[in-house]
Amino acid sequence: MKISTENINFDHYQQESKKTAIYPKDIGLYYVVMGLCGEAGEIANKTKKLARDHGGVLTEDMRNSIIHEAQDCLWYLAQLCTELNYPLALAAEENLKKLADRQARGVLGGSGDAR
Ligand SMILES: [Mg+2]
Question: For the whole model, what pTM was predicted?
Fold first, then answer.
């Protein structure tokens, strides 16, 4: 697997990361959703400890630690898209379209999925 930021795109990432997806396929959807929540929780916990133990000062070590958890989230997100038979690249594209539409209508802020 040749890795550089120049040849990484969402399709490539989804295909390559799938090769490392070792979990029971009969519970795949549940496995990846719980895993994604777990990794997001790790980000939350580390950020909590950043505030509690480090006065909110983001050191290079803490930054790297949180980045590693973000990378783990990306892996689980890619597997979630795979479980849903949905291209990660399309998720990115559709999300950008949604955000651009909201920006154009002046509703980036606020709440509600359908705004
Ligand atoms: Mg992790």
Answer: 0.90
CATH number of 23-100: 1.10.287
Distance, CA 19 to ligand 1 centroid (Å)? 18
Q: Output the CA 41–ligand 1 centroid distance in Å.
A: 9
In angstroms, the CA 82 to CA 112 distance is 26
Domain ranges of the chain: 23-100
Residue 5 corresponds to which tokens in the numbers above?
């930021």
Residues 6+ apart with CB under 8 A from 58: 50
CA of 82 to the centre of ligand 1 (A): 20
CA of 66 to the centre of ligand 1 (A): 9
Cα(102)–Cα(100) distance, integer angstroms: 5
Residue 43 has pLDDT above 70, yes or no: yes
How close is the Cα of 78 to the center of ligand 1, in Å? 15
CA distance 74 to 33: 12
